[in-house]
Amino acid sequence: MSISRGSSRSSSHSSSSSSSSSRRRKSSSSSSSSSRNSSINSSCRISNSSSSGRSNSSSRTVLAVEPVVVAVVKVVVVVVVVVVVVVVVVVVVVVVVVVVIVIVIVIILIVVVVVVVVVVVVVLVVVVTMVVVIVGLAAIAL
Description:
The protein has 142 residues and is mostly helical.
């Protein structure tokens, strides 16, 4: 009987030691898991803060790029307006020059026609006068 008591004591001792060792394992595993969780949480916080920093920097980049885009658009609009104005001015000048040239040509033609008509009239008057004079002289001579 004493043997069985001793063996039951040793078995209870061994079971208590195994349960305490399993408790130690559980506590160590829980502490390691809690340390793992805290490290994961801290890394998540770091990654969140870095991603928020990235989003802040990207918003800063967008804010920094926006005036440049506005300036480029303004320059392009000014260049387009200047080109359109220059083209319109050139077209107007060309049209005015062509109209002036046509008017000058028409005036020259009118002057030439008037001069030709005057010359023809003068020649006709001279010829008619000469014919009349010749006919008169011939009549007197006869």
